[in-house]
Amino acid sequence: MKSRIFMYLFIFSVLLNVFQYVNSKNIIDKYEKDIKIFKSKITDGEAAISTLEDQNFELNYFNIDRNQGAIEYFEAQGYDTDKLVTLITEGLYEMNNYQGDDHPIVPFVSLTGTKLLINKIRILNHKWVVANFTDGEYWGEIFLTYEINAQGELKYKLIEYFMYPKVS
Known about the structure:
The chain is an alpha+beta fold. The protein is built from three helices and four strands, in the order H-H-H-E-E-E-E. It folds into two domains: about 1-60; about 65-165, no CATH class.
């Protein structure tokens, strides 16, 4: 009887070990499969990030922050480019605080009765600016030049402009 109990215990322990081995193997196989999936996703994500970084670099090509020649131009004249860029953009945004119907730089009158406002500004280099404007329904873009006179005042000059036609 004692030998039978040991035999049953032995068989039970072997079955338990087999069960644990199979279960552990299934868990490890599942983890390995998950790891492969996640490595694939990480590789795809890294490729997408690299592509987006390249696109971002290309899109920021015409930007004063990346234009070393424009930065050196201002530094040679003794200007702090960070402060100057802020001054240029704030000067254009301050033009949104106007009285009447005529915007100081945008050559259109609002067609909706609201004020025309400059929304987005891109300083291309040490001479050119592109800006977007809207009255809430109609919108367009302007191309400006700017210069700093001897007194340190900014002067803007409108070069080109257009308003997009309303799409029904």
